[in-house]
Amino acid sequence: MPIVSLRKAVFTGKDGQYIRLVALSEVNGNQWTHIAELNVLGWCPGISRRMG
């Protein structure tokens, strides 16, 4: 299946542990939405990786 709509958004870096996505609207006016794929790129200094 070809990629119909690929969008890129760049944000100023912030310290944190999570990413919150907030849908402001939905194409049919419903109370839900979805995202097919999300790639978060970047480098976070000082983060230790816990195994297990």
What does this structure look like?
It is a single chain. The mean pLDDT is 76. The chain has no helices and no strands. By secondary structure, it is low in regular secondary structure. It is 0% helix and 0% strand. It has a domain at 1-26. The N and C termini lie far apart (36 Å).
Task: Tell me the layout of helices and strands.
Layout: no helix or strand
Describe the structure concisely for a colleague.
The chain has about 50 residues and is largely without helices or strands. Helix content is about 0%, strand content about 0%.
Ends: how far apart?
Answer: 36 Å
Low-confidence stretches: none
| Gyration radius from CA atoms, angstroms | 15 Å
SS-based class: little secondary structure
**Main pleated sheet:** none
Mean pLDDT: 76
Question: Could you tell me the number of beta strands?
Answer: 0
- Share of β-strand residues: under 5%
What global shape is seen?
elongated
Q: Considering DSSP H and I runs of 4 or more, what fraction of the residues is helical?
A: under 10%
Number of helices: 0
